[in-house]
Amino acid sequence: GQIFRLEDYQPSNYLIPEVVLDFRLNAEETLVTARLQVERIARAPADAPLILDGDGLVLEALAVNGTEAEPADYDASPDQLTISRLPASRRFELTIVTRIAPSKNTTLMGLYVSSGVFCTQCEAEGFRRITYFLDRPDILSVYTVRMEADRKDAPLLLSNGNPLESGDLADGRHFAVWHDPFPKPSYLFALVAGDLGVVKDRFTTASGREVDLGIYVEHGKEKRAAYAMDALKRSMRWDEERFGREYDLDVFNIVAVSDFNMGAMENKGLNVFNDKYVLADEDTATDVDFANIEAIIAHEYFHNWTGNRITCRDWFQLCLKEGLTVFRDHEFSANERSRAVKRIAEVRGLRAHQFPEDQGPLAHPVRPRRYREINNFYTATVYEKGSEVVRMLRTILGEDAFRAGMDLYFERHDGQAVTIEDFVKAFEDASGRDLSQFSLWYHQAGTPNVALSSRYDGKEKTLTVDVEQSVPPTPSESRKRLMHIPLAFGLVGPDGTDLDYQSVEGASVENGVIHLRKRRHQMVFKGVKARPVLSINRGFSAPVTLSVESRADEQLFLARHDSDPFSRWQALNTLLTDALIAASKAVRGGKKPVFEDELISVTIDLAADETLEEAFRALILSVPGEADVAREIGRDIDPDAIHTARGALLMAIAQAGSQTFRALYERLLDNAPFSPDARSAGRRALRNTLIEFLVLDSSSPEAAYRQFEDADNMTERAGALTVLAQHFHDTDVGRAALAAFEKRYRDNPLVLDKWFQIQAMIPSAATVSLLRSLMEHPHFSLANPNRVRALVGTFSMANQTAFHSADGEGYRLVAETVAALDSHNPQVAARLATAFRSWRSLEKGRREHARKLLAEMSKRTDLSRDLADILERTLA
Ligand code: HT7
Ligand code: ZN
């Protein structure tokens, strides 16, 4: 397959300032007429051919300046339209008619039908599945869209921008015309036509513009869109207050569809959402669902400025809009909820998803230099590490200079398609600082490691800290350059407050941040009055791994006393992870795992500490997962040993905390009416972590079953069911609960997904065959990405023992699903296949099973480009 390279970027010889689209919508056969105003750029040769992208298209007609084109003047294939003879004038009009089949489009890219609703997904390269076009993000056009459809099936006709006109036609047909005055790339085009219910609201912008807001959902589900509407209005206000960004059209619409490849899409003025990230009420959505909805509604809305008004020059620049917009949505959620809790959740996510990517065969820089299939670069590295890079930029510049840089970026580049260099330059110019070394974060793959040791001299009152950075090699990047790593820190004194120091030598330190720029720094803090414990990388100021030479009692001290809550959680997490690594080793050596009493008691004490918020205490009790431990072990991994070790730790905590947890669980029972706010969610989260310890301690499912039965909200119901499925799946109580849940929610797809998901996580030798039977369930279908992700995706990502079952049957199940899915929906198939990315770090029996299956799969000759790319890189 063809490889696209950043260094090959060439501006287009032709521009398309204006596009008029006409859709005759019909599920089986839709006729698309595109009228394009084309302009040859001044320096292009007059005979430069115009090469338009297509993907599986059928050309019906082509006219140039209104005259039918001569067959000799062009060449049309499903994937390309090349026009070799064009008018001598620099401006001309092309009319292109294509015929497409939305109902047969199973890839969910381009124009397709989801539950009877026509909808589009054009990012990254879906527009070329609708019409021939210069389908690249640096071609910005003003769109006018006319749609015609049966009024009965599609009373609703939406597109980008503002509505212009609408009306009836003969034979029960009707039409609508939309116009978007903001020039945009084709990937932001969208159309929706169908029969949907709506929730309406209004928003007045800071400068007084009245905006009509609409959230469109399946009829009967309108009430479940109320929370999303509230989140939208809060997002709009926040972007004004925090970044001075206002909305710019008369309408803002969101449509929820049930078949969607990703979370949502930021099409200008018409966001399309996976309904999972719109629909919520207490009976059907968990607190995590509510938080995700808030974050994704905000994320897509924030794209209006970071992505739409200023877009990417090419797809190598994806992080320009994604990393920045994730940073913005993280800040929004941190403001709306608890900053510390939000940060811990982000870091857990980064470590769970981005670190393994960065440390395995699929590693790539935040701004990649090459790709074969851009769909495979919507990754945790581009999104989450991309966000961490923006966060570091703020840490380095400080809030005010960061905001000045953002303002300059908006002012300078509004209406343009730009690069990461343009972005960084805005911050250099606004702050007067040289960010060239910092920029390596965009260009160099791999997770840096920072090794630290420190010693205190009580006589001299000095603390000497030795620091060394290294970046491990990654595919096709063996030699790494030194990074600029900002490490927030504190010197924690005996009473838990940060100690002052008089001066520091050996590295630049500003506002509580150490700036590492060299391989090694020896830093000497002078005038440190008492022996401190070094609290480093506070708030996870840099996305690095740390090797700290410190004693367990120092980490215990930080867990109990650090003034930064993130660092308290981190200290405990480090200790628990180390303990689990040691315990896994013991299990593998045929020994019984043991845990230090002090570690168990600090965990229980923190969980019970009423001065701390409940959500934080819930995180304290969520001991590192099996995948976290596996990642830290890094090689020759035996998932069964880790599972046994973790089970023993849970049991040790459960038994030691028995009294405390029981009392706390009862105390936390909230009789107030349900509210999705962060405080109430925190109480429920803590109760949900406690219930697992209660049933472990009592060796009985009773308490969990009671919670399952009594719950008046999905968080507690699904939480209890998860515990029952994890620990009592082969008991009557466990089976009864699963059956009751299925019966109650059979007709609610999003909730039924949870039922599939909970079973996919059961740690049992029988889970592979359970999954095979669930794949025969009348409600299972490979056509619905949410369902596939709920069952097979969850199995591969969140069931360490069964996916990695020693006989290779878990791998086989996933490989078979990937293969079956590939012809239907390559994007989802390729993503599922990334579950194999860490295969080399397993012990050799499992490694061999995985290698064989991957090799077998990659031999197939009918693979999609998406899947072939993932398999090839995974095996390389
Ligand atoms: N910008 C959106 C990306 C997206 C997408 C990409 C490829 C295929 C389907 C897709 N759906 C949405 C989502 C976002 O980051 O906001
Ligand atoms: Zn995004």
TrEMBL record:
It is an enzyme of class 3 (hydrolase). Residues 553-876 form the Peptidase M1 alanyl aminopeptidase C-terminal domain. Gene3D superfamilies: 2.60.40.1840, 3.30.2010.30, Neutral Protease Domain 2, Peptidase M1, alanyl aminopeptidase, C-terminal domain, tricorn interacting facor f3 domain. Keywords: Aminopeptidase, Hydrolase, Metal-binding, Metalloprotease, Protease, Zinc. Its cofactor is Zn(2+). Its EC number is 3.4.11.2. Residues 227-438 form the Peptidase M1 membrane alanine aminopeptidase domain. Residues 21-188 form the Aminopeptidase N-like N-terminal domain. InterPro entries: Aminopeptidase_N-like_N, Aminopeptidase_N-like_N_sf, PepN_Ig-like_sf, Peptidase_M1, Peptidase_M1_dom, Peptidase_M1_pepN, Peptidase_M1_pepN_C, Peptidase_M1_pepN_C_sf. Residues 446-547 form the Peptidase M1 alanyl aminopeptidase Ig-like fold domain. It catalyses: Release of an N-terminal amino acid, Xaa-|-Yaa- from a peptide, amide or arylamide. Xaa is preferably Ala, but may be most amino acids including Pro (slow action). When a terminal hydrophobic residue is followed by a prolyl residue, the two may be released as an intact Xaa-Pro dipeptide. GO terms for molecular function: alanyl aminopeptidase activity. Belongs to the peptidase M1 family. PANTHER family: PUROMYCIN-SENSITIVE AMINOPEPTIDASE. This is Aminopeptidase N.
